[in-house]
Amino acid sequence: MAMVPARAAAAARTTARLFSTESGKGRNLLLLHGWTADSNDWCWQLPVLESRYRTVAVDLRGHGWSEVVPSGAYDPADYVSDLEAFIDTGYPTERFVLVGHSMGGQLAARLAAKRPDIVDAVVSVDGSLGFAENLTPVFQKVNAALGTGDPGSVAPALFEQFYDPATALAMKRWHARRVQGMPAHVVRETFGPLFLGANQVGVGAQSEVFCRKLRVPVYHLCRDDAQAERMRPWFSHPASKVEAWEHAGHWIMQDRPEDVNAALTAWIDGL
What we know:
Layout lengths: L19 E4 L4 E5 L13 H5 L3 E5 L17 H15 L5 E6 L1 H12 L4 E7 L10 H13 L2 H10 L8 H12 L3 H12 L8 H9 L5 E5 L2 H7 L9 E4 L7 H4 L1 H13 L2
Helix pairs in contact: 2-3, 4-5, 4-7, 5-6
């Protein structure tokens, strides 16, 4: 286990120090959590994955136990640079299957596009990709609310729209309390660039163009049949797959852990 000081002020660097855990042997997996989350989100997967693969789980900059850098360094490109440095420094010449949830799914795809030499495949668990253009006003509204309001209230209110009726109340409380313990600038500055602006790849035609350029296998799990149908032609590798999952909220891997574990291991073993 690599431990770094949390909430540390950033020095004059382009990358942040990332907390990570590593366990298991076999194929390399790198687990990437979502916005306002941390690597504990994968606790329902870690026992299974660590029993089959060399599994590395990281906290992204500003999240969990990783370094908090100052305002102005929370674009997707900043996160991707951290992951590049993390792999190049700690695992030189090695390749990984990237498993990302939400924002982590988009970051995994971005890293695969930028550095196909270190990425074998991408698993996107309700990743921030492929949203319909008509959701842009929703993302704009959330981004504006984050800028003027309390992120500890705005983010949980957003999450409520994406839970399943069966999602445990304890899970919802955990997700909300975690945001309330984060630096506000991290929460505010991370959200918008995922879905808004010239460099976003989460919404509409820009997301489609981006996804069609990916050459590694991609397994995308989402919760909307229309989104799944729209995205299926976007991934060119023959091993790619897009599925719509029912009876689960945005944290699919927490609402249906056994099913997700079985699906992930089957797809990874089939590569």
